Amino acid sequence: MAPPKSPFAPARISTDAFPARQRLAKWREFYGRSIANVDIEPIGDEPFHASVTFQSLPGIGLVAGSRSPAHYHLTRQHLVGARDGFGLSVLISGASTTRQLGREIIGRPGTAVVISGTDPSISTMHRPGQFLTIVLPRPELAALVQDLDSAYASQIPAENGALRLLVQYVNALHAAGPLDDPSIAQAVASHIIDLAALALGTSADVAHEAERRGVAAARLQAIKTDIRKNVGDHELSAASVALRHGVSPRYVHKLFERDGTSFSEFVMARRLECALQMLKDPDLATRTISAVAFDCGFSDISYFNRAFRRAYNATPSDIRSAAFRLR
Asked: Which pTM does this prediction carry?
């Protein structure tokens, strides 16, 4: 029996799943009625396309994806029974406009529009692009942000540091895979709320607490993503990572300490995982073990062999032989 799917696992759907002639109709039915509750009006002659990934967290919804040019109309009729929430809609690429409350906001990549969840709006993607929408609970944010309602139909600039961290955090969350632990999902939701409050602007005392929680969590995720991306770099260090993220090496070490580990332990674990995957890859069967170790950031083959055996209770040769015997 397959294990039950986590309620916090991302779910992806694309118009590619439907026959070409039915894509718009099916998307209007599935996305426009069941998910977003909007009317969809394509622009131009380009074949309609959309792809989205949904993820639910306690009190929060995440929608990320791509769209061909189209208007998305949220009418009074659609708003009947709408929950007391709002959205931060971030334009990742492309060109967009949003009209709400008598205002028109012209989007550029990296900016976010604050969209009221209880007022009609028209969101338009003018050319193919990518987006991220974070649906947030109004009561929780109203407790952190003074006069939250005045932020509706306004734009958060791409230069806003908290907004950039928020987008990085959500991207890292999607890259990390499904969340199985409800307590972790709740903590992630709290971090997202903290970062959203900072992006919207909050009082000094609330900002201090939000930075301690949300910003630290987002920076740690961004740094972990950085390490995974650069795991084969032999010059990888807390200092080099800190420089890329605009923080001090000591702050990097403190983030890992609060997470119950250390920078060096995390790097070692990722390098060993890298080697494990490479050793199991049939396309790399002719690559020597020393070359695999080097590619994963190890300079000393003896040290690599000892560390690998401690981690997996087997030698690199044992792992490679066992993987190929199973094929």
From this structure: 0.73
